[in-house]
Amino acid sequence: MRKIMIFSNMYPSAEHPTYGIFVKNQVRLLESAGVEVDVVAIQDPGKGRKAALKKYMTWCGRAVWQMIKNRKVIALTHAHYAFPTGVLSLVGKKVFGIPYVVTVHGGDIDQMAAKSQRIADMTKRILQQAEAVIVVGDKLHADVTTRFGVPEAKVHVMSMGVDTSVFKEVPKAEARKQLGLPIEEKIMLYVGNVIRAKGLLELVEAFDSLKMSLPDSRLYIVGSQKDDAFAGELRSFIQENDVEDIFFKEPLSQSDLALWMAASDTLVLPSHHEGFGLVALEAMAAGTTVVGTDVGGLSYLLKDGAGFLVEPENPASLATGLWNAIGENAEGIDDTVVRERVTANSFETILANLLSIYRSAGKGRVARDE
Fold it and tell me: Are residues 180 and 287 in the same domain?
């Protein structure tokens, strides 16, 4: 297979090791299969109008230059996020005749395309002119085909995948010993950005309501606090309501995160909207019960007894779900369904599907003499 060029507006760096880590994981997966990959990405999550303009202009310039230099050997480009990243792939197709694939992750459809009609129209153009569109959840499939008019034959439902060599079951006592956590307490874990749309205010309220029944319980919130205003509001909310045993942690490496998941009684993801919910899948692979809101990809991941689905933006429903998962009379989950979901989204399965999409999308440009 000839060279694949990956465009992404999120990609890890030494300073920000978890920023777009799911894209880097997929790049490594492709490289492990012998695929030559070039990455042109933004690695700085910093905000601010002036800084954002500079980094995006630099990124666009690098992308165009790389396509000019490599236009004869690029099989296709793969854009992560329809807008703005897909603009680069669209330019590559129009100017250099390079076919492209685009992965829709959720925010690019649910939020970015809703900002203006101009962005919505550009998103539609990007999606319709792609050789293939990958969506990370069933709801996104419906959105792409109905709202943006992309033919179903071009749309593929495929998550970013879970590395089961990293996210795997470890005996809870052993994991807690390694992390220095108490064996007897109930530990709830949230992993993700500390932003309002992740439902953290509702999570704190739900956790507080459970403390009477589960006095020996802790809540760990692991993630980037890049929204300073909301992070301050959340901490004030915790203090004003005198909620104890809530601990904040900075983003963790994947190996450390896998151990934290294995050590926890439940992973809770109370999002208001969610493209797929990769951390939920990772927790399932680590053998941890997941409680999540009935939105986006979580609706699929946790249905049929694979986890506990609760109403979004509803602290009472969230508290009930957490109680069902880890309370005195905790309900069980269907381990067979969990294993099926994990296997369907394992790196091995994802790689096979992705290479098939590339071959079809790139046609003669992808194939090489072997």
Answer: yes
Instruction: For residues 308 and 355, give the distance between their C-alpha atoms in angstroms, rounded to a whole number.
Output: 33
Residue 172 makes CB contacts below 8 A (sequence gap 6+) with 262, 263, 265
Q: How far apart are CA 21 and CA 24, in angstroms?
A: 5
Instruction: Indicate the pLDDT class of residue 16, thresholds 50, 70 and 90.
Output: confident
Please state the pTM of the whole predicted model: 0.84
Instruction: Tell me: do 102 and 193 sit in the same domain.
Output: no
Terminal-to-terminal C-alpha distance of the chain: 9
Nearest partner of 101 among 122, 124, 125, 127, judged by Cα? 127
Residue 33 sits at φ, ψ, to 5 deg, of -95, 5
The answer to whether position 166 is within a domain reads: no
- Tell me the residue range of the domain where 197 lies: 172-344
- Token duo for residue 152: 């179903």
Mean pLDDT of 230-251: 96
Nearest to 75 by CA among 93, 94, 95: 93
User: Which tokens hold the place of 291?
Assistant: 């409680």
